[in-house]
TrEMBL record:
Residues 252-301 are annotated as: Disordered. The keyword DNA repair applies. It comes from Aliirhizobium smilacinae. This is Non-homologous end joining protein Ku. Homodimer. Interacts with LigD.
């Protein structure tokens, strides 16, 4: 991937076949607007300083170490070298342990996605694995040391390559039984169920991630732009609260069988994309305005 640094390089092995591969981040938050903490009295950026909990004195980096709390306020000291010694040795190999149906893994276990690409010498072996999994409709479970931890990875065909998703361990996923333990057993039947199914059928569509705009990010861009230009801050729109109603009446109204307001225009792909377009335009305007009105340099934090 031109212009992007690989997060990890190594090999993928299935059976007695192996080839060189690289992992690239598939999702990033680097395009989000970020803020620095500023001293309101001086306008300078603020540094983060670690303070002793009891003496309230700053602690220099060379005096900082790791500790595990065994009782309230009592810690055992663990040297960073001791922590480093627990990191598993890595042979830089994603070894496929099994091929499983894609539907076997509950997506609650999904952690982070990465694009998995081959090196030039291993394209044939890589393509054989990709096409074999696609034809067999399976995914691969592999394990390796990634980012200082032994990780389980789910590998699936994705376009011309593969996508590798790190998986949460079982102990990291909270029990769904506990989450829903207060949920009473209710079975919806009759007209209520028919209306719910009707509403669902009228709202069917396709997933298009480009059609969903980040309204918070767009609002931040508008705020930054207004502050730079010295304009009044954008006003928050008043939320229209629905009047209380019983479920059946609300379902009938949603299905067009009761009194309702004038039907809103159908959400088309063009309308949906306009939201993302407005967000990009706002970010661009804020960036352009900031460049043309460069603020005086401040001391580095």
């Amino acid at each position: 991937m031109a212009g992007q640094r690989a997060q990890w390089k190594g090999f993928i092995k299935f059976g007695e076949v192996s080839c060189g591969v690289a992992l690239y981040t598939a999702a990033s938050t680097s395009e989000r607007i970020t803020f620095n903490t500023i001293n309101t009295a001086t306008g300078n950026r603020v540094n983060r300083v670690f303070i002793d909990n009891d003496t309230e004195e700053p602690v220099p980096k060379e005096s900082q170490t790791k500790g595990f709390e065994i009782e309230n306020g009592q810690y055992i000291i663990i040297d960073p070298d001791e922590v480093a010694a627990t990191i598993p040795e890595s042979n830089k190999t994603l070894e496929v342990e099994a091929f499983i149906p894609c539907s076997d893994v509950d997506d609650v276990y999904f952690d982070k996605p990465y694009y998995l690409t081959p090196d030039k010498m291993g394209i044939d072996a890589f393509a054989a694995l990709r096409d074999g999994m696609r034809k067999s409709k399976v995914a691969a479970i592999a394990r390796t040391v990634l980012f200082r931890r032994m990780r389980t990875v789910l590998i699936r065909p994705h376009g011309k390559g593969l996508i590798a998703t790190t998986l949460n361990y079982d102990y990291e996923v909270r029990s769904s039984k506990k989450a829903f333990e207060d949920m009473p057993k209710i079975k919806i039947q009759g007209e209520m169920l028919d209306l719910a199914k009707h509403i669902i059928s009228t709202k069917k569509g396709d997933f298009d991630p480009a059609s969903f705009d980040d309204r918070y990010e767009a609002a931040l861009a508008e705020l930054v732009k207004a502050k730079i230009e010295g304009k009044a801050l954008p006003k928050r729109k008043t939320v229209e609260v629905s009047k209380p109603n019983d479920l059946l009446a609300a379902l009938r109204e949603s299905a067009g069988l009761g009194k309702s307001k004038e039907t809103a225009p159908k959400r088309t792909a063009a309308n949906a994309n306009s939201g993302a377009g407005r967000q990009r335009a706002a970010r661009g305007a804020a960036s352009k305005t900031a460049s043309s009105k460069a603020a005086p340099q401040r001391k580095a934090g």
